[in-house]
Write a structure and sequence with these properties.
Layout lengths: L2 H28 L3 H33 L11 E9 L2 E4 L3 E5 L2 E2 L8 H12 L3 E5 L11 E7 L9 E2 H7 L4 E2 L9 H13 L14 H4 L3 E2 L12 E6 L6 E6 L6
Helix pairs in contact: 1-2, 4-5
Length: 255
């Protein structure tokens, strides 16, 4: 029911309640019509109950429109996923978009786009997720930057770290979000596992990288030099047109 209709019904009910109340008060004052007074009293109580119920529905709709305040979310808060936009972006209650930190799933015209979106949909669509913030809270498009977790169904089942899951299964590649780098090493290892096993977008189905590049660990970074000054950098342009890929050769990475 639309809010306008709901509030119109409430207004009519209020007029009827006040009218019956006035009639009942007049009968009580005159000491007449005991049967009518009882009947009007029952009707009045029912109408008041109906009015209260409609008011509760109206209030809940208003609260839903406000949406959750997740500027300072704690690890215990859960948020309902109302839509999966693509393989690395979801929408939660309040129509707020959440961009998963550290991953980059294929875009709409790229190989494995549908598979990545379908997997994220399978994981979180219509479910409650836990969000974790790093340093920067939003990106330039106003989307929340978060790590996303799907809680286990019971105490014996571990949470699913959605960002890492998508990388490990080959549904996305790594994408650095400086200064949000809390799980960069974990993400690189997950991506390397998918690359070695030729999963998802690293498979021959997509021809995502050249055969030479598929045999090495790759990291795409944004405006950030390699952490190891002794490593050599070989630059390549992705066939997807998504930006420059940098191959780190002879680089020693500490855990």
């Amino acid at each position: 029911m639309k809010k306008e209709h709901l509030r119109a019904i409430k207004q009519y009910l209020l007029v009827i309640i006040l009218t019956i109340g006035a009639i009942l008060a007049g009968l009580v004052a005159a000491g007449q019509g005991d049967k009518i007074k009882k009947l009007l009293g029952v009707i009045l109580i029912g109408l008041i109950g109906l009015f209260a119920g409609l008011s509760a529905v109206d209030l809940s709709d208003d609260l839903a429109d406000i949406g959750p305040d997740i500027t300072e979310e704690s690890g215990d808060n859960l948020y309902y996923v109302i839509e999966v936009i693509d393989g690395d972006t979801i929408k939660i209650d309040g129509n707020m978009k959440v961009r998963l930190i550290g991953i980059d799933a294929p875009e709409g015209n790229e190989c494995y786009y549908e598979e990545a979106k379908d997997e994220l949909t399978r994981l979180v669509q219509g479910k409650y997720v836990r969000l974790e913030k790093d340093i920067d809270s939003v990106d330039g498009l106003g989307r929340l930057l978060r790590y996303v977790y799907l809680p286990g169904e019971d105490l014996t089942e571990n949470d699913i770290f959605v960002n890492e899951h998508l990388l490990r299964r080959g549904y996305a590649q790594t994408l650095s979000f400086p200064p949000n780098k809390r799980y960069n090493m974990l993400f690189v290892k997950a991506r390397e596992q998918a690359l070695i096993q030729r999963k998802g977008l690293w498979s021959d189905e997509c021809d995502y990288l050249s055969e030479f590049e598929q045999e090495h660990a790759l990291t795409r970074e944004i405006n950030e030099p390699p952490s190891d000054p002794n490593c050599l950098i070989k630059g390549n342009i992705s066939s997807r047109g998504a930006g420059k890929l940098r191959l780190l050769i002879n680089s020693t990475v500490s855990p």
